[in-house]
Amino acid sequence: MSNTIEIKVPDIGDFSNIPVIEVLVSEGDKIDAEAGLVTLESDKATMEVPSPAAGVIRELKLQLDDTVSEGDVVAILEVSGESDEAEEASSSGDGDSVEAVPQSPPQKAAEPVAEESEPPAPSADIEQESPPPAERLSGTAAVDPARVPYASPAIRKFARELGVDLGRVKGSGNKGRIVREDVSAFVKSVMSGAVETGSSSIGGLRLNFPKLPDFDFSRYGGTEKQPLTKIQKISAAHLHRNWIGIPHVTQNDEADITDMEAFRQANAAEAVEQGFKLTPLVFLIKALVAALKKYPTFNSSLDSDGESLILKKYFNVGIAVDTPDGLVVPVLRECERKGIMELAAELGEISARARDKKLTPQDIQGGCISISSLGGIGGTSFTPIINAPEVAILGVSRSKMSPVWDGNEFRPRLMLPLSLSYDHRVIDGAEAARFCRYVASRLEDLRRLTL
């Protein structure tokens, strides 16, 4: 006896229309339980959709370059009669990715309500969608309010986050449906100057940016065109929107980490024996968590109405990781509950997965504040760009030995430069200076982290 089940895309977080970059099986293949069927790639992570049971692939519902969302059917699997567990999960609805057939077509999953809602932050060259249709501009002509763009709720949310007017986006999907790639392509065309945007508004201030002229660089010598990676394309729009839409201010300070570094080196060998490195970043994470508890405004996000703050009661820290394809920011969760060694092991593991492009969508969501460290490269200070909807980011440069006056004499001390960028709509300068000094004080005396 055998039965047939549908294998569906499981919970993939707040992502939709994710492209299929690899098909790992063919129709007629006999597969084992947990075998990978297809590989999906979101903005900054890849994941495989596994089979919940052993059996034979009777029908593949996806092809290379198709786009999928949670609940979409991947394949029809014929499982043997002894696979009762898979059948029960299918019929009871307990399984995330398996449901019995026959059934009606899957309904579009309701868009999850995010606890931390990112405030609309229109860029200077992408028009905001939130005002009434009559007030929005498409070049110089008003948008017709009767014209409703053909797009899913998830795509509408994605467009709102980027400040894109869907009325100006041409859909490439079935019957002109707007998909995620159409929105991303529109943002890219605006950034390159290929699309005229007319004038934009930020906080009531009307801005007019002229289109950049086209340059023929080959007139001056040899050239070569190198395409941006997918991560670079997505990051470009995200960073540009954040830089234009958030009033950045950067507070610089220094922390005396002489004693901290001595403690770290004394315990480095123990960490290596356990299979990971004890880096200064884990001490920064613990110091940041202590500062977030002391100054809760830094652990908040602006509500979508721009008139209130959402204060978070959890402490998740994003760590910027440099990969061959660009910068990604995986998130370490519940940092207040973990010790130095546990954080060091987790940091090493998630950084390795980031470089191997094995992060899941959940790995890059839910951060409260981020750290961008250039300490391994050099520099004295810099201005990191805030990773919205967060309201602050801590930049770290390379530590160096400096003469420090102790009241009687100059003594050599290891000083660590700190650069705290913050959203001036939420945080004022005095509070930022206190926050930065508080972080430094926790690094200077590790005993204070236990208070």
Structural class: alpha+beta
Could you give the distance between the termini?
Answer: 64 Å
Q: Please count the helical segments.
A: 8
Helix proportion: 10-25%
DSSP strand count: 24
Can you tell me the residue ranges where pLDDT is under 50 for at least 5 consecutive residues?
A: 82-146, 198-206
The averaged pLDDT comes out at 80
Descriptive notes:
The protein has 451 residues and is α+β, with helices and mostly antiparallel strands. The chain has helices at residues 84-92, 153-162, 180-192, 230-245, 258-273, 280-294, 340-355, 429-444; strands spanning 2-8, 18-23, 30-31, 36-41, 46-50, 55-60, 67-68, 73-80, 98-100, 137-138, 141-142, 199-202, 205-208, 248-256, 300-302, 309-311, 317-319, 321-323, 326-328, 331-332, 369-373, 392-396, 400-405, 410-423. Strands 14, 17, 20, 21, 22, 23 and 24 form a seven-stranded mixed β-sheet that branches. α6 (280-294) crosses α7. The chain is globular.
